[in-house]
Amino acid sequence: MPDAQLLKRVAKSHNLTDETYRHIVKTLGRQPTLTEVGIFGVMYSEHCSYGSSRPYLKTFPTKGPRILVPAGKENAGVVDIGGGWAVVFKCESHNHPSAVEPVQGAATGVGGIIRDIFTMGARPIALLDSLRFGPLEEPRSRFLLEGVVKGISDYGNAVGVPTVGGEIAFDPAYRDNPLVNVMCIGLVPARRIARAAAGGVGNPVLYVGSSTGRDGLGGASFASRELADGDADRPAVQIGDPFTEKCLIEATLEALATGDVVGIQDMGAAGLTCSTSETAARGGVGIEIDVARVPRRAEGMTPYEVMLSESQERMLLIAKRGREERVKRLFAKWGLNAVEIGRVTRDGLMRVRDGSAVAAEIPASALTDEAPVYRRPVRRPAGLARAQRLLLARLPLPKDYGAVLLTLLGSPTIADKSAVFEQYDHMVQTNTAVLPGRADAAVLRLRALGTWLAATTDGNGRFCFLDPYEGGKAAVAEAARNLVCVGARPLAVTDCLNFGSPQDPAVMWQFKACVRGISDACRAFKTPVTGGNVSFYNEGPRGAIDPTPVIGMIGLIEPRQETRDRRHVSRPPSPVPGPITANFKDEGDAVILLGETREELGGSEYLAMIHKRKAGKPPRVDLAGESALQQLMLALASQGWLKSAHDCSEGGLAVALAECCIMEPARLLGAVVSLQPSAFPGPPITRAGAGSRQRIRTDALLFGESAGRIVASCARYHVERVEHLAARHNVPMAVLGRVGGAHLRLDSWIDVPVDELSEAWRTGLPRAWGLRR
Question: Is 47 a catalytic residue?
């Protein structure tokens, strides 16, 4: 038995406090072994236990008619999409590893989230990435961006799962601590969902997949503290092998299809420790394993190292007794380890042997359901009131609005992301219905159902810094708008909540407010939270990141209703069913704005890029108005009246209009648009009328980021119908102008050739990144 001082030093290395160490001694009724200290250390980390966030996460709405698995009870959320099929999806973070070793950090983030999906019995069909970096003027930010993109592409391309969408933003708040959040989506027959629970006393416990090494040791603890300077944390970063993962996918799905598997879990964070304790606790049983039987690729590994290693591409599998040899042969066929390392017991203990010696013996529930919960103090950030003050009267108006538009289109956060997604294989599996960057959400063809699944990730750290409650609402609202812009009905949410240290009362105040905003929005939109991830301790030498909740949302595109217009018999019928894309389609089409513009410049990209300020209150999110807009968009999509739809977000209305002109590189189309009343013939403007618009500053009108707005286009003969439907849904609508020409003309403020807009937008990111295009 190691001496008490050594045990306490090891406990400290796992961020265990003296109080928590006393709790461990009380739980065991004795001093822990070295291996037990390590096991408690990783399982009590924020990354595994959610000790500081659990009280707030319980406030999320998690129930709904389509939810098949309770949130947090399995490896991922499961949503019924009809026809006997279900979607499995989840979002996870790999922020700390990516900050230290960006290629492997991002690659193993991809591998880990894919395993969470196929352990549920689902075949992974898509990936989306939500990324944050510091300013690209800084060499470190360029290094991190290059490494993270390489890691995602190296792993995702090789494993055969397409990366179909996501988002990237750049801000000084992330210069020390980038964010790498990855969402994976899978498809499974609803009757074949696999569970991560052990069962059947005496059933064999199998270790399957790659061998265990010393890479990733203590990764869960590493992810639960602030980043340090230098390379001291590099051994905590895992190393991935996508080719082994591809074999593991096929072997696992084949094994699950045999009916020989009782339960299964990925060895992700905390490795063998997490998979054994959690499967035992979920099943209300115990598990005994012998680490001497664990396949290894490093000599002289101790039980402590074997239990805490986070080597990749490994799974824990509980087989039916008598069927284990068939399971072993199946994995051997794919060139993978499949070794019986233990059995299910009835005593509720996680017992770890090293041959005849007992290295650890802990109640499984003590590591999971009974892990400590912390009621952290909360306090409004001291400088928030000052940051929220924005005196518009002292903010100078630009002299050249066209130049401002070009600057915003070229800013890395807004600019075309082709330089990134062209490195990803987005067509593997051939289900991608819309190319990345052509619509507001990714769209996947579901051949088994003859329909489409849409997915998006969204979040705005600047909004959450200035008002975390409104920022939380805004993340959910933008995700839902992105889905309805392609014609999809929002179904459910997963999240990745990225924050600073929970020991800082200001951070916990932000976290509490963000969770409340997300909860209120999800309730309003009837999109339950199916699970997700909390990533704390996202801090560096210069402080914490902006609070950044990332929302992953899925939706279904429903078949459109074909209608016949007796007044226009000669006109073509409504478009065939399918997703709506963002670019303008035909000369002469009407340009429509749905939603209301208010004088809201707080937290905008315009304020950050042009005036170098992060200030003001972010746009207020009207949940009732957002819900009405969503229902209107779904009704319009079902009728097939819209030719394009694009959410107004970063850069505001002017940027949204410009993107609609240039998003399809093979067909640049200009537009003549007016924000003055009655400047363009057509139906009368409703609610957002002349008086309210005239009182708005020109820069706020053009570049403010008011929520709840969508730019759409339709044939001229559908305008009256669209207007009538908008009035029925009580959604403000204005006909702004028409599609056509080679310029974007916006009153007297902006007149820029579309090829110049396209050049600024397409070269902005490569130029800032230092790439040759």
Answer: yes
